[in-house]
Design a protein that fits this description.
Blueprint lengths: L1 H10 L18 H6 L8 H4 L3 H7 L9 H12 L3 H13 L9 E2 L2 E2 L2 H13 L6 H10 L4 E3 H8 L4 H11 L3 E4 L5 E4 L1 H14 L4 H10 L4 H10 L3 H18 L3 H7 L4 H6 L1 H13 L3 H18 L2 H17 L3 H8 L9 H17 L6 H12 L5 H6 L13 H14 L6 H16 L3 H18 L3 H17 L3 H12 L14 H17 L2 H4 L14
Antiparallel strand pairs: 1-2, 3-5, 4-5
Helix pairs in contact: 4-5, 6-7, 9-12, 12-13, 13-14, 14-15, 14-17, 15-17, 17-18, 17-19, 18-19, 19-20, 19-21, 20-21, 21-22, 22-24, 24-25, 25-26, 25-27, 26-27, 27-28, 27-29, 28-29
């Protein structure tokens, strides 16, 4: 048949053409047609729906379902694939609960739209594959990105490069990534389908496939995830304990929390390391109640296992969380506990930082700058990035007497050890540098520093600690330059902190009251009576008992 088509195409008169629709590239003389500019090709990327086209497909949705966010989730889930969109939209019409659109975990289909798509892919795509390609694709679906070396190791198949070429030739729902070697990325929906089939057809192979994937995975979060899915709990726990602080510092707490949630409850109950990592995640979100609970569990678990140094370190985090709620006696008890052995430079720096928190919580502001200077004295010889992150001062300490010089030293040191990329710590360091420059009257350079911090914050989300630091100083700079609308916008961003249910400082807390007063100061700079008179929310009761 294809020989006939080749002959026909050679002899067609110029006013004629042939339209051919196929899932795979047909064995025709396509290179010759391309060379003569006689071939128009519409590949998968050309046929994808865009956001406006997805929106046009949506049925009438209930009032509480946002069409814009629903369209975005559908587009991300299907990558604009027409059949997948049609099946998902049909499912929406039958059951318009927006939460079902993108609800999935590790490839488990739990929405009717996914099930319909999976049935279609099984019947129309997977069943038509040669058995060798099918087995290769199923095994390699544990990987996020497919390169010949990784796939050969995971699937134990020396023909990996051949199969990847075949996958691309067939247009099997992949994107081609730029890099030192040809690499494909499976679309999320297709990978979820393949992983669903892998669990059904090759369940006994799954642990070993994940171990092989972990062995060659450079990304920390993915590697630990592979170890968890392989059931290698001890290796995953150790690696997360070693890398968790670095991930939180450079990426944020969210991926670490997702990893923690995959460990079995009995391991959580006895592991000081997992409790300590959860404590660090809560610290990064200023989630003081959960931080205190996790730090206490970590301390008790370390004590039970005989790890005195680990218990002492967890006690310092308890002290910080106690002080944040005004329990100064409990905080002092933890800070004054003697360390079990001579301390290294990192432990000395963090002990000094905890004492700085204590000094501030007890209202001894006259020696605050001196205490924080002692932190920087110890910190400046360390290249431990998570330690720098945990030695960021409280946002309310900015502008306090004696703090300008230590803040400048902190910002310079943190930026020196950090990579040139947006991270929570870099945004904080830039904001602190801006505070110091503002205090010194260097408005132009302060604006440049805070502009960079604002850019990082927007890229990051931002986490609550970053939001407070950046959007406390930014409205001051806007107000000093007479930019009233920009100042109000930055203040609105600042006050979002107290609407976040995961943040330890709620409306009515002393920090909330402090930033309501900060808003009054900005209003005074702007001469904006309405902004200054804006009421604070009703005060929430503060629980003082343990």
């Amino acid at each position: 048949m294809f020989e006939f088509l080749d002959l026909l195409l050679e002899r067609l008169p110029p006013q004629w053409g042939v339209v051919l629709s196929t899932r795979t590239e047909p064995p025709l003389a396509l290179p010759r047609l391309r060379a003569h500019d006689e071939l128009a090709e519409f590949r998968e990327r050309d046929l994808r729906f865009d956001l406006d086209e997805v929106r046009a497909l949506l049925p009438q949705l209930p009032a509480h379902v946002d069409p814009a966010s629903t369209s975005r989730r559908l587009l991300e889930r299907t990558q604009g694939w027409a059949v997948g969109l049609r099946l998902a939209v049909n499912s929406l019409a039958a059951s318009p609960a927006d939460a079902a659109i993108d609800r999935r975990q590790a490839g488990v289909a739990d929405s009717s739209s996914d099930r319909h798509v999976f049935d279609y892919l099984l019947a129309e795509v997977l069943s038509a594959m040669p058995p060798e390609l099918r087995a290769f694709l199923l095994r390699c679906s544990v990987l996020s990105e497919l390169s010949s070396g990784r796939c050969a190791a995971v699937a134990a198949d020396s023909r990996a490069a051949h199969w990847l070429e075949e996958i691309e030739r067939r247009g099997l729902f992949v994107s081609v990534l730029e890099g030192p070697e040809p690499t494909l990325r499976l679309h999320d929906l297709f990978r979820d389908f393949l992983q669903d089939r892998l669990r059904r057809e090759m369940p006994d192979e799954l642990p070993e496939l994940h171990r092989r994937a972990a062995a060659g995975e450079p990304d920390l979060v993915r590697r630990i995830g592979y170890r968890i899915r392989a059931g290698d709990w001890t290796e995953a726990e150790v690696e997360l304990a070693e890398a968790g602080g670095r991930i939180i510092t450079t990426v944020g707490a969210a991926p670490v929390l997702r990893l923690l949630d995959q460990f079995p409850p009995p391991l959580h109950a006895r592991s000081g390391r997992l409790a300590h990592i959860r404590c660090l995640c809560a610290w990064a979100r200023w989630d003081w109640p959960n931080m205190r609970e996790a730090a206490e569990r970590a301390r008790r678990a370390y004590e039970s296992s005989g790890d005195r140094l680990g218990a002492w370190r967890a006690g310092l985090y308890e002290a910080i969380s106690y002080g944040s709620f005004g329990f100064t006696d409990e905080a002092r008890q933890r800070v004054d506990a003697p360390p079990p052995e001579p301390l290294g430079i990192d432990d000395r720096a963090f002990l000094a930082m905890t004492r700085t928190y204590q000094t501030f919580d007890e209202g001894r502001l006259d020696v605050l700058g001196q205490r924080y200077g002692e932190v920087i004295d110890a910190l400046e010889s360390s290249t431990n990035i998570p330690l720098w992150y945990h030695c960021v001062p409280r946002s309310m300490q900015c502008g306090m007497p004696g703090m300008d010089r230590p803040l400048a030293r902190f910002a310079a040191g943190a930026l020196r050890v950090l990579p040139e990329m947006p991270t929570p710590l870099r945004a904080l360091a830039l904001a602190l540098r801006g505070w110091e420059e503002l205090s010194a009257g260097k408005l132009a350079v302060a604006a440049a520093s805070v502009e960079l911090a604002d850019s990082d914050a927007r890229w990051l989300g931002p986490p609550p600690n970053v939001r407070v630091f950046v959007y406390a100083v930014l409205p001051i700079l806007h107000a000093l330059h007479g930019r009233a609308a920009e100042a109000r916008s930055a203040l609105d961003e600042l006050m979002k902190t107290f609407d976040d249910p995961d943040v330890g400082y709620r409306p009515g807390s002393f920090v909330h009251v402090y930033y309501c007063l900060h808003r009054v100061r900005i209003a005074d700079l702007l001469g904006d009576v309405e902004l200054g008179a804006r009421p604070a929310r009703a005060r929430c009761p503060t629980i003082r008992s343990r």
